[in-house]
Amino acid sequence: MEVKKKPEEEENELVLELKGQLENEHLTPVEKLRLLNDSLNNALNSAAVHVNSGELTRLKSQLYLSGVLIHCVRVLSLHPSSLWGDLSAAATLAHLTSSCCVGVEPGPHSETFHRLFLPSVVDALLSLAAQLVNRTENVSLLRKVMDSVGWLLAAHTHLTEKVLSSIHYEQIQVCDDVTVSLLCVQMWIQTCTANSDFLSGLSDDSILLLLNEAIGQLALSSDSTVGGASLRLILLMASQLGRCLRPLLLSFRGLDSLLHKDWRGRGFDRGIDQLIALIQSEKDVVSQTQGSSEHVRAACVIQAAWRSYKTRRRVKSLNRAVSVLQRKYRARRREQQQQKEAQLWEEELKYQVCVRRQQARRRFHQKQRQLLQLLPADQVQSYLQECENRAAVVIQSFWRGFRERRHYSSTQRHMLRRERAVRMLQRGVRRFLHKRRAAKVPPLPPFWIGQKGLTDSRRAELKQQVDEYIATHQSFRVSPEECSCLHEEVQLLLLSVLQTGAQQRMEEQRVEALLAHVHTQLELLRDAPPLSVVTETDADTFLSPSGPVAARARDAHNAMLQASRLPWWRMLGDTDAGPVDPLGSTHLPELEEELGGLYIGGTVADKKQTQVDEVKL
């Protein structure tokens, strides 16, 4: 088993070694070109020597999967100036690359191989051929490159459309050299001869382009070799395609006369007679077809005339046509009337909505006027001013919003779109550059590998280095005495800050204690029993521990009770005249009688009961 695996292992090692050498960035394009030629030539020759035919296919597949063929395409796509004019080696590499692309088994990468890689190979070969066209001394090299393209087309038919639509192939066709034209025609002849199913796998457009190229050579060239090759290509296409090619030949009018006048007596009259006979036979078939089509067209005209006459006669005999027209007209008129009524109803509804909205606005203003009458005289003007300010703010906000939206839609939208596009491009470029730099930087080992802790000897060494640096780089602005003074001042300031912080913490603790006491008092007031069931012992728990606070609260409560009972016209002049004692001796009996004996400012004997009432009120 080891003896059978040895050739495969050797091939894999050779391919991997070649790939590693090609990935070396220090190699020049010429060195890569020579390396590829030597390596591929030796590998293909050694694989072809084996008796097993699968060795060569396996080698080609390994070359594609490892990326060696991609390097070949890149080298072929270079300009001749970068290859130092070594076009012979480039043509050899083109031949080897074409040979490696035939018989490859890409496996799961089949779609990528046929749709992306093979078109790139064809484009590189045609580019090299276009560069060799203008050099008359490189005819043999051009022939080798064109043979490589033909060999590739014979194996992969779907590349024909790529070749015919290529810009490089058009440059080759434009060349006036007879040898170049002959090589192009011979390439197609060899391709059709090597693969008999080549033309049957092409589309009609590709066949028409190929036929156009051959007939174009007959029309433009006067060389007998080019004409004979073009005629041979047309006859080969006719023999392989059969009747499918004949309609395409008729699209080139005057082809038979061109062959008879310009190409008679050139040594291939037999082929000309065959092609002319083929064109004439197709013309006869077309003429017969045209005659039969004229008969069919005449029959269609007669049938159409008869059917129209028959239809008109039936319409005249039928009275239902008028009734149908009338019914449709009446339905249309009824639909228009309904649409008009619906429109009038909608307009009436809009009018009613406007009227009701106006009435609601009028009622709102009347209600607002009535409420204004209940306000004090000195507050009316401030209230109206506040309403005007609110209305002005609403109007200004709507106007500014409309103006900003219009400004944004007219000027800012385009700028924002451009800025967004610029940011997107910059973000993509920065991401690409970051990835590129990260790929070039070698990976760092983990921080825990190879790291040691700071030992005492290392710490002493670092301290010695710091002291030496300070001694060497002394500051000329501050002396050591000034540094010691500054150090003492900083220590004093730090001490004062710490002392101040202790005082502030004591003050905060005192404030927190007061807040806790206030919260406790508020919870007691919230959970207090009603006045109907309260006792004197319960009332003592709600008395304030401060006498002045209790007296001030009682006076403020009595003042509010009297002020709430006064008429509004008595309070018009009290706002500017300063505080007035509302608990006069004349009003106390009235208030006490009105409140049902509630303590207002009575005797000392009723003091505790009054305090309890004040707490609940």
From TrEMBL:
It comes from Maylandia zebra. GO terms for cellular component: cilium. InterPro entries: IQ_motif_EF-hand-BS, IQCB1. GO terms for biological process: cilium assembly. The lineage of its organism: Eukaryota, Metazoa, Chordata, Craniata, Vertebrata. This is IQ motif containing B1. GO terms for molecular function: calmodulin binding. PANTHER family: IQ CALMODULIN-BINDING MOTIF CONTAINING PROTEIN 1 (PTHR15673), IQ CALMODULIN-BINDING MOTIF-CONTAINING PROTEIN 1 (PTHR15673:SF2). It comes from the Eukaryota. It holds the Pfam family IQ.
